[in-house]
Design a protein that fits this description.
The chain contains eight helices and no strands. Helices cover 78% and strands 0% of the residues. The chain has helices at residues 2-9, 15-20, 30-39, 43-64, 69-84, 88-115, 119-128, 135-155. It is an all-alpha fold and 156 residues long.
Length: 156
Amino acid sequence: MHEIVNQTIGTKSTATEEEKTPYNIAAIDFEKLRKEFERSPAKNTATQNLKQVVDKRLSILLQRNPLRSDLQAHYQQIVQDYNREKDRVNIERTFEVLLKFINELDEEEGRAVREGLNEESLAIFDLLKKPELTPTDIKRVKQVAAELLETLKREN
């Protein structure tokens, strides 16, 4: 199981390089990982390893856009639930919940592309966006976010 995760994620030599290169967990065969977990005598260790992967990915997402705090809150709840009881059933359930949470992180990482923005523009867009905006207003806010980012970069 460790080998599957390590092969897919890999390690980076510096923090700045790590921040620039997103994790590609799309290549992880989650069904294979789940089967390995079921056979593993060290389920707690496997869950802790998966938790470390999630910690790192979530940290990068939050650095790029602090408004993703809802993901942080959801993750903290998962960890609290896990820490309350560490019996076999809870460890297995936590492993499954972490796998589902990774899917949520994948969705959030792809949101910038779906919105037609880069990560920096998406962070500004999230700050400016209001729930009651029309599609036309949303398009304009995206444009303003991109322009504001360009202006801020030029002034630095």
